[in-house]
Amino acid sequence: MSTITLTTWSLEMNSPGDLVPAAVPGPEIRIERAEVPSPEFSRFLYASVGGDIHWTDRLSLTRAQWVEQLERPGVETWVAYDRGTPAGYVELDPQPDGVVEIMYFGLLPDFRGRRIGGHLLTFGTARAWDLASRWPDDREPTRRVWVHTCSQDGPTAMDNYQRRGFKVFRTETEEKQDAPTPGPWPGA
Question: 0.90 exceeded by the pTM?
Fold first, then answer.
C-alpha cells in the first residue's frame, strides 16, 4: 500500500461577529435539530457524508459508544433537509471553557455543489455561538468555535470555512497509509 501526505488544518472563530453568512439556497432547504439522540440516524449521516472522503474514525464504534457520545450535554446534531430528504449535517461538540468544536460537517454526495453547504455551515456556526442558551445548566457562553479539515475532505471544505470567517491557527502534516474510501456502506 502506498503512503500519502495528509495535511490537517485547524481553524477558529473567536467572536460571533466574525461569522460571514452564506446565501440561503431556497425555500426547499430547511435545517432542524435532531433533538432525540439516535445512534442509527447519526451513524447513517456520518457514513453517508463521509463514506467517500475517508471518514472512518467512528465506523467501529458500538451502538453503546454512539449513545455515550450523543447523549453528552450540549452535543447537538443539526440536519439540512431538501424537501424532506436528509442532505447533510453538522454536529456540535461542547468542550470546556466555552469552546465548541464543529466535530462533523458535510453533505451527502448528491447534495454537494448546490450551495447548501455554505448555508448549513452558517447555521451550524451560529448554533455553536448560541449553544449555551439551549443548555443553561450545563454550558457557559461560547467564546470560541473551532473546526478541523484535511486534505482528504471535500475540495470546497477549506474555502467554505474561510469564507464563513474561520481563520487557520494550526497546520499539521503526516505520512499515512493510503486506503480506499469505505463508501456509505460496505461494498458501496
Answer: yes
